[in-house]
């Protein structure tokens, strides 16, 4: 039996393909959001409000990704069934998603210089005031212990950050055990700060590097998704007009 060619068959096939690409861009956004939330968020959390925008944008990417996947399937359905209502619905929401993606990328890049300028001193003062010790159960101390152990660093600027801090006043130690290269050794006593015992490098440069990487990943992923989705948006509008 010969294949039946309906009007705009080529455009419908093209739009179905582009909707598949759109759905894949949604999957990328979901993966990007999850990566930022769980890969580096636990470490950069110690920067406080200076890095909070990254967590918010990663959640936004996750939500936008889920919506984009659904819109990709809805667009495919609208093209197949020649449903103008479905096509209009998909077009409207994809335009909104596109604008949000561009805005999110802009916000991330705009806040990065603020992190570099403000976060260092703010994080330094907060650490000296709020850090309690290696075995303390409070969230702030646990987060910093995780950072110093995993990144192999000590303090914000260097290992001397704890001198004169509330931590030293409470414990009498000049650095916490999480600064040690080998935490369980006898030499890790909170006083011996020789280079073979303690990580002397501060954590801020490493945290800033993670923050920059997350920022570029989020902004690049959002803009990339927007570029990928744009042809599908235009094809949806074109088929909607031609079906009118």
UniProtKB/TrEMBL annotation:
UniProt-listed InterPro entries: Tetraspanin/Peripherin (IPR018499), Tetraspanin_animals (IPR000301), Tetraspanin_EC2_sf (IPR008952)
SUPFAM superfamilies: Tetraspanin
Any GO CC annotation of this UniProt entry: plasma membrane
Annotated membrane topology: Multi-pass membrane protein
TM regions (residue ranges): 17-38, 59-79, 85-112, 216-241
Keywords, in A-Z order: Membrane, Transmembrane, Transmembrane helix
Cellular compartments annotated: Membrane
UniProt record similarity statement: Belongs to the tetraspanin (TM4SF) family.
PANTHER family xrefs: TETRASPANIN, TETRASPANIN-16
Protein name stated in the entry: Tetraspanin
């Amino acid at each position: 039996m010969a294949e039946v060619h309906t009007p705009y068959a080529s455009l419908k096939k093209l739009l179905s393909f582009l909707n598949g690409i759109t759905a894949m861009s949604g999957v990328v956004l979901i993966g990007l959001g999850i990566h930022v939330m769980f890969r580096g968020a636990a470490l950069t959390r110690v920067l406080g409000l200076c890095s909070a925008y990254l967590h918010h944008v990663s959640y936004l990417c996750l939500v936008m990704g889920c919506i984009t996947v659904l819109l990709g399937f809805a667009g495919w359905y609208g093209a197949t069934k020649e449903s103008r209502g479905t096509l209009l619905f998909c077009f409207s929401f994809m335009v909104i998603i596109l604008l949000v993606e561009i805005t999110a990328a802009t916000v991330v890049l705009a806040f990065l210089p603020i992190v570099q300028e403000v976060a260092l001193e703010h994080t330094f003062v907060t650490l000296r005031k709020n850090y309690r010790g290696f075995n303390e159960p409070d969230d702030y101390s646990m987060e910093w212990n995780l950072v110093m152990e995993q990144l192999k660093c000590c303090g914000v600027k260097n290992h001397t950050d704890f001198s004169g801090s509330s931590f030293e006043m409470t414990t009498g130690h000049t650095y916490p055990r999480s600064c040690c290269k080998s935490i369980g050794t006898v030499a890790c006593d909170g006083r011996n700060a020789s280079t073979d015992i303690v990580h002397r490098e501060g954590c801020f440069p490493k945290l800033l590097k993670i923050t920059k990487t997350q920022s570029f990943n989020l902004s690049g992923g959002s803009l990339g998704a927007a570029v990928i989705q744009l042809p599908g948006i235009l094809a949806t509008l074109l088929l909607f007009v031609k079906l009118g």
